[in-house]
Amino acid sequence: MHPVLQVVELLHIIFEHLKPKDQFSCATVCRLWSEVTLDILWYELDDLKLPVFASLLSPLKEEENVSHQENAENSEDTKLSYAFADDPPNANSKDWRRFELNYCSRIRVLRFEGNLEGMHKHMFSPVLMALQRIRPPSSPLLPNLHALTWDGTFYDFAHSVMFMHEGVRHCCMRYGIDDVPKLDLNEFPLVQAIQTRMLSLTSLELEMVPYEELLGPLAELFGYLVDLTSLLIPIFPDITPILSSLSNAKKLNSLQITGHEDDVDNSVVQAGGQLEGDALKSLGVLEIIVQSYLKTLSPFLSCNHLASLHTLEVESCSVETAVTIKNLFQLVPSFAPNLVGCMFGFLENGEECREHFESHRIYSNSLTLDSFRGILQCRGIEAFQLDHPNLHLTNSDIEEIASAWPRLKSFEVYSTLPFHVRDIPTPTLRALFTLTRLCPNLEEVGLLMDTDLFNDSKDRPAYANMVISAARPNLMNLEVGCSEIGPGDAASVARTLSHVCRPDCQLSWADTGRTMMARWKTVEENLPLFSRLHATVKDQKTRISFLEQELETLQERISGYQGACGGL
After folding, report:
1. 481: left (phi > 0), else alpha (psi -120 to 50), else beta?
2. β-sheet bridge partners, residue 316
3. CA distance 218 to 192
4. Which of 93, 214, 276, 422 is at 20 to 30 A from 408, Cα to Cα?
5. Could you tell me which of 408, 343, 344, 399 has the C-alpha nearest to residue 380?
6. Distances, alpha carbon 35 to alpha carbons 50, 104, 141, 197, in Å
């Protein structure tokens, strides 16, 4: 065998790109190849591979689960359980030692997703319980595990404990929203398990109902997890104790208070005021769902200064007024002067927005450039997103924003109300040309626009000048929301957008009716054609310009040569 094919690092790079069937073949070549292949095959263990993994110790059998069979309407709904066919070997046997050495020690990542609806038709509890009884209490089942993801129920929590140990660095625990009405910490000692088994965690995600019984123990736990760099926690109404407890986490870079994906009813009501000591000093990312900007966020922002914060994402449970947003944006520069990306949104659906509009709550509080001016002081912004039903921006407003943020890569300001319930000016297509000209790195835009090409300039020369001054097409994603297109204007809009959009630009729009969606579909189909055409024309013009310069240089050389010859 060539010496190159005995380099472990090189073999690992090659084998990890092979299909499983080919990897199995490589495992039979020699011992070295077998070791490398097994390391790759058993690097990660999930639900689908768990039966195969357990069968390496002892053969398995399938059994019908009685509790599920009683509720099943047909055989397809019957829940099956895996169990060992015979009594598995004990911890002192050769088979167990072989199982530990050849397989258990290779697993670095465990992903158990047992409660995902429709994911599997098997239960693994009997197998996990058997493994828990066999393994020596003093040694973990997967000694080299460093990442544990457990997506289960409160009732199978005990199974997850067997995989927890000091070597685990990343832990994600997810539990269903409706598992239990009230939490009994004696039956669900999650905090105690983490505190006694995984104090070296650098990343922790807890997605579950924010039970009141958990708040105190979690706050105490976070005081011990000094190596944390990333933390995701449930949405407790009062997070003041938790923020105070994080003063010892000097390395914490990311804090997400967003809870479970199905938890849509909870929000942070109180975040406290001045942080203790150096709490959150190294924080770079903050994501939070609040009840109100004014009551929850403003007191916290006004009392603290996080110089390391570069990303801020905030969602409110209701549509905020223009005054509230203006006050918030005025606080942001002093709270996070080095902000690079920020997102401000709300959780209400479109129907609720329309109800607010009809009651004049939103219409009388439209957002104008005056609301933005505070946050424009953060000159390093590269990504900005604001969702609000009633944005009132003009072309000149967009130009001022783009001038303040020349580093923009993503700019999304969504107004979710369609034109038929709006009676305020909106930016025209000219705004896209302004954005791409002043922000050369811009790749993503979300903007409600008036697509009438001559709405703000009735003469065609103005349109021609706008096209001539356009920067190179660079947009990769364009979200137009509820923007409307007039009858017969789809081709013209596509041609105009092709001056700022790349041929592979992803165009998306909101559901505003069959007619309007069909027009935007026409734009989507024609946009790549126009973009490629403009790119070809621009390349040809560049080539012609280059040849003209070459010709001019050649003529100068000939003239110089003729002058030199005439002087002889």
Report:
1. left
2. 290, 346
3. 10
4. 422
5. 408
6. 20, 13, 20, 30
CA gap 335, 134 in Å, rounded: 54
> DSSP states of 374-408 as a string?
TGGG-TT--EEEEE-S-B---HHHHHHHHHH-TT-
* Integer Cα distance of 193 and 365 in angstroms: 50
Identity at 553, one-letter amino acid code: T
Specify burial of residue 358 (Cβ count, 10 A radius: 0-12, 13-18, 19+).
exposed
Alpha-carbon span 438 to 402, nearest angstrom: 6
CA 469 to chain centre: 35
| CB 290 within 8 Å of CB 268 | yes
d(CA 259, CA 238): 14
pLDDT digits (tens, 9 = 90+) for 247-281: 888 999 999 998 666 566 688 888 888 887 778 88
Look up tokens 């995989």; give the residue. 163
Phi, psi (5° rounding) for residue 138? -85, -10
Sheet strands (E) in 33-137:
44-46, 60-64, 80-84, 109-112, 122-123
When pLDDT is averaged across residues 170-178 and rounded to a whole number, the result is: 79
Structure tokens at 345: 């949104």
DSSP 3-state of 123: strand
Task: Scan for tokens 């946050």, then name that residue.
Answer: 375
Name the nearest CA neighbour of 449 among 469, 419, 475, 421.
419
Residue type (1 letter), 251: K
Which spans in 412-508 are helix H?
Answer: 430-438, 460-468, 490-497
pLDDT digits (tens, 9 = 90+) for 56-67: 888 877 777 655
Cα–Cα separations (whole angstroms), residue 139 to 135, 144, 152, 166: 7, 11, 24, 11
CA 367/CA 393 separation, integer angstroms? 8
Rg (CA), the chain: 31
**What does the DSSP assignment read for 182-250?**
S--TTT--HHHHHHHH-TT-SEEEEES---HHHHHHHHHHHTT-TT-SEEEE---SB-HHHHHHGGG-T
Domain chopping of the chain, boundaries: 3-32
* Interatomic CA distance for residues 254 and 205, integer angstroms: 11
Backbone angles phi, psi at 254, to 5 degrees: -135, 130
pLDDT at 459: 46
Contact between 368 and 399 (Cβ < 8 Å):
no
Q: Write the pLDDT tens digit of every residue in 505-560.
A: 999 998 888 898 999 999 999 988 888 887 787 778 888 888 888 888 888 888 87
Beta pairing partners, 255: 231, 286
Q: Which residue type, as a one-letter code, is found at position 396? A: S
CA-to-CA distance for 264 and 347, rounded, in angstroms?
A: 8
Length of the chain: 568
Whether pLDDT at 178 is above 70: no
With 0-12 / 13-18 / 19 or more C-beta atoms within 10 angstroms meaning exposed / middle / buried, residue 325 is buried
Which tokens is 163 given? 């995989």
